[in-house]
Write a structure and sequence with these properties.
Mean pLDDT: 90
Number of domains: 1
Number of strands: 16
CATH architecture: Sandwich
CATH topology: Jelly Rolls
Shape: globular
Strand content: 25-35%
Radius of gyration: 22 Å
Number of helices: 2
Helix content: under 10%
Order of helices and strands: HEEEEEEEEEEEEEHEEE
Length: 277
């Protein structure tokens, strides 16, 4: 006699793989339904003592306006004051019209001024950030005419508003710097990746789909396009990017439309980790 398995007692093992819908909702598929290749990038390490980048001119195509978008990834390697970006009225000095910085174990801050050097945008993160192995993504936008501002840290709203005035930001300044308060103060001690700045553009980042243009649902970088034009359809004035394995000196190449390459002071090193790891 041949014994047959009891069909009432036996069921096939359940698959442990995630359903396709889970991946689709999180942006893993192209519009044609193909699985996306993971977006891999490298980052540049600024040593906090000698390293920074300078354009040495005004941004090509810059216009004074009431809007802007700033997005970048950073890993803080030491709790010291550091400037991410500065725009000044004259080459190598003058009055600062735009800056974003971090005080070391503190919030980040973004400030923009009009031609009279009056603060008309002054926003900070609500939370404070300290040195460590964590990569942070800071995503900001503003539209002063609409009294709108957004600041998201790793995809979470993180905004405190000090000043939001309906006036015009002076973006047509004579010099721009990254990683320092010029000429030699407040050098950032940490690593930067995907540094994107778009004066004159705006996206409402309270809309999740707009944030997905810069950060994935699992908290990783997404491709911004060769010139950084993918998020809005228009290339930003500043976009510094490194492909996976690319020479770190190429971080000085501005893939945006605002001019360059920028000049490196010191020697940038390849970061030991990446936000896409």
């Amino acid at each position: 006699m041949i014994l047959k398995p009891d069909r009432k007692l036996w069921t096939p093992p359940r698959s442990r793989s995630m359903p396709r819908s889970w991946f689709k909702q999180r942006g893993f598929f192209t519009p044609m339904g193909f699985m996306k290749t993971p977006f891999k990038i490298d980052a540049a390490d600024f040593d906090g003592f000698n390293d920074n980048m300078r354009l040495g001119a005004g941004l090509t195509g810059a216009l004074d306006s009431k809007t802007g978008i700033l997005s970048f990834w950073v890993r803080f390697d030491a709790n010291q004051v550091g400037n991410f970006i500065n725009g000044e009225t004259t080459l190598g000095g003058g009055t600062v019209r735009f800056f974003a910085n971090w005080g070391g174990s503190s919030p980040i801050r973004v400030v923009a001024r009009n031609t009279s050097a009056t603060n008309i945008l002054d926003i900070t993160s609500t939370a404070s950030y300290s040195s460590g192995a964590t990569w942070w993504h800071f995503l900001c936008s503003w539209d002063l005419a609409a009294a709108a501002a957004h600041l998201y840290t790793n995809d979470a709203s993180d905004l405190t508003v000090t000043t939001l005035t309906n006036d015009t930001i002076d973006y047509t300044v004579g010099d721009w710097w990254i990683g320092v308060f010029p000429p030699t103060f407040n050098r950032i001690n940490g690593c930067l990746a995907e540094f994107y700045f778009a004066p004159g553009q705006y996206l409402d980042f309270s809309v999740v789909a707009n944030r997905r243009r810069f950060i994935s649902a699992i908290g990783k970088p997404v491709g911004l396009g060769t010139t950084g034009a993918s998020p809005t359809g228009t290339a930003p004035l500043i976009y510094h990017h490194l492909n996976d394995g690319e020479a770190v000196a190429n971080f000085a190449i501005n893939r945006g439309t605002g001019g360059g390459p920028w000049t490196i002071t010191g020697t940038l090193d390849a970061a030991s980790t990446s936000p896409s790891d």
